[in-house]
Design goal:
- The protein is 28% helix and 21% strand.
- It is α+β, with helices and mostly antiparallel strands.
- It has one domain.
- Strand 2 and strand 3 form a beta hairpin.
Length: 163
């Protein structure tokens, strides 16, 4: 992902009002993000922890969606797999993030949801090289495949929001 500005982020949202995007707080350390190792920019709002944002470059340009987590956050009594990175070794919390659909469907109250790492660390998770083994002798190939699959899954979710 290439570096993007505050203004580009705020103008990219397809399912949020102008007032909602005006109130958003940029991710911590925004100025020093490692853009080369991000497949998308995702973060929780520090002042409103049940609200999050996901922004990624698409064929139509930069596209952002506003997400909400359920009240009460994550259940601590069971492990849940993130649908984006599918990292089976991660000990991080996973939330059911819900996005209002874009356009009239969203204004009618329709939403879609998916399980995503609570702190949007999917890009880092897919870049963890696994140990070489008989099935996957080259860890670099596995990492490349995981990055491609993350990008495919995140775009599929974005398409469901945009429908």
């Amino acid at each position: 992902m290439h570096p993007i500005s505050d203004r580009e982020i705020r103008s990219s949202f397809i399912n949020a009002s102008r007032s909602e995007t005006a109130k958003l707080n940029l991710p911590p350390h925004f100025e020093t993000l490692d853009w080369n190792n991000l497949d998308f920019l995702g973060w929780r709002d520090e002042k409103m922890p049940l609200r999050a944002y996901l922004v990624l470059p698409t064929e139509r340009g930069l596209t952002g969606i506003l997400l909400r987590a359920p009240e009460g956050g994550a259940k601590k009594n069971r492990s849940v797999l993130c649908e984006m990175c599918r990292d089976v070794f991660s000990k991080e919390d996973v939330f059911l993030w819900v996005a209002k659909r874009a356009g009239q469907a969203g204004r009618n109250g329709n939403t879609v949801g998916t399980l995503i790492c609570a702190d949007f660390i999917c890009s880092a998770n897919v870049r963890k090289a696994p140990p070489a083994n008989e099935i996957n002798p080259d860890p670099a190939v596995v990492v490349k495949r995981q990055i491609e699959e993350l990008n495919l899954r995140i775009r599929k979710f974005l398409a469901r929001v945009a429908e």
